[in-house]
Amino acid sequence: MTGQIIAVLGATGAVGREILTCLEDRDLDIKEIRFLASANSAGTELEFRGKSYEVKEVHPNHFKDVNIAFFAAGGATSKEYAPIAVEAGAIVIDKSSVFRMDAKTPLIVPEVNASVLRDYLANLRPQSGGLVASPNCSTIQLVVILKPIADQFGLKRVVVSTYQSVSGAGQKGIDELSSQVIALFSQGQIEVKNLPHQIAFNCIPQIDSFLPNGYTKEELKVMEESRKIMGLSDLKMTVTAVRVPTFACHGESVNIETEKSIDPATVQVLLRASPGVIVYDNPDKSEYPLGIEAVGTDATYVGRIRRDDSVACGVNLWIVADNLRKGAALNAVQIAEIVAKERTQHPVQ
Amino acid sequence: MTGQIIAVLGATGAVGREILTCLEDRDLDIKEIRFLASANSAGTELEFRGKSYEVKEVHPNHFKDVNIAFFAAGGATSKEYAPIAVEAGAIVIDKSSVFRMDAKTPLIVPEVNASVLRDYLANLRPQSGGLVASPNCSTIQLVVILKPIADQFGLKRVVVSTYQSVSGAGQKGIDELSSQVIALFSQGQIEVKNLPHQIAFNCIPQIDSFLPNGYTKEELKVMEESRKIMGLSDLKMTVTAVRVPTFACHGESVNIETEKSIDPATVQVLLRASPGVIVYDNPDKSEYPLGIEAVGTDATYVGRIRRDDSVACGVNLWIVADNLRKGAALNAVQIAEIVAKERTQHPVQ
Question: Which of A90, A205, A252, B85 is within CB 3.0–4.6 Å of B90 for a Cys-Cys bond?
């Protein structure tokens, strides 16, 4: 693996900053790194591996010679600049939702479908850029758990209710919860700006906007993306997505009906052996996944694994992951590591 | 209806105080009221309908001549004093869980099974006391919604995930969230005393203790009590109960599979006509039930009603109610109102 030229677009956002942290924690060989953002955030100084960098306003020229470009600046920016970066020969790893369901774009969670990414890269011409989508945060932690269960037991139906932190709405979500809590505890006026209602000490059963069928886009994303990533286009699944007043990590209450007979002990053994998963399931000691413990870590945590007697074959479980990390930045960096390895084995001429 | 002699045991707790508020808001004819509590809380002064009362330490003598005794002081106190109050001729309305699943004890949500209560009272001898149980808070708001759907469409299976506020753990739960938030925002030390883990900005997938099958007692209560109240002993149902960092009201994400064909528009019409229910379901305006709006009110709110395409006949919906009010105090007072009416029609000799 030779050194990569990296660009990070949206470097000053919640996900962008977490990408920096993940790159610092891991060993991707980086020859050069460029931090890009909108005009608003240009000029910000960022520290990376002991050096200080000035964030530049994004411009097509910045993608020249870039090997891997992380896009974490929202859908509109991805739509505008991804084709430019791809044309310049970069592999764009896009965190936005705009290309995820595009049939030609691989949607990747490395623990689940790395082979799809490898096939995609193998079919690119050596000089060609490419586009890889990273899924919705709630999708990622879900499929990491569901895929091993699908492979061993067959999925008949999945019912999910989420408990999503404000960091899923970016830095402005974090600021909003924080400022509302301070206002409440100091008899100030609550301001609702970025979320549809007060989030301090309140649950909001709406993430993203509504579709005509009564589901939110967030709920639809989790269903559609899970089907695409696992290659189960007919998977029966329904999702309710709820924003809860936590700063970090998403929880999910997952009810799984399987084709084959399933029992909690076998699921524990299976998931303990699954990549990216930590089983944390000792009810006797009140041990189960908690957001305050998962924050800043890489794994998807699973616990509360128990039989669901309302179906012939089923289990309930509770999963938690850091939505900025495995749910966003880490997953993108894992994709980048595969790209770097594959493109070095078949280097650009 | 003639004036009742009322006792409130556990008058200084979160539910006890809410019983007072409900009694003040409603028109039960009260001739005399006695406030009782453990030795710890005895001596507290309480205001009721413009008069001040001293809370007395509970003693068997206090139940003499009492018509209706509200018990909201926990399971151990109910076990000890309920038989004494019943022996003295009172109708005990018990908020604890200890008698709920007893075959001889009616478990009542007036909107759902008031007739069971009337039959029970009709079968008591005129001088006899009796015992009526009020269900778990999460159960009450659930069956108020489920019963009309069961009657019209038939229930095949129900999957519930809860979002329960700290007030479900009583005043000490409220104090714990409050003090932890203050500690976090003032760089103080977080203290975990009454809940199994930090609740500030964290979700805890454990309410009450664990059973050998991996479910919590809370989850089992919701399943068993729902079956008993609705008279559906074989109802297929599974529950995940989660404590979230909100002060008031419980939310529930409810997935309902029905026997007969069901559609959201018909469910809206049905629930609008159902007692105790307010349909609040305008996604276009981001209108759906919220805890901060339901607090202090009597109804069970339902919204996010939408078809579940993962089954032949099914809907998802989101319900919210004030767990101290409809989930506890109000339900008990509604029971008392039926008792007063029925016992006056067949008065004690």
Answer: B85
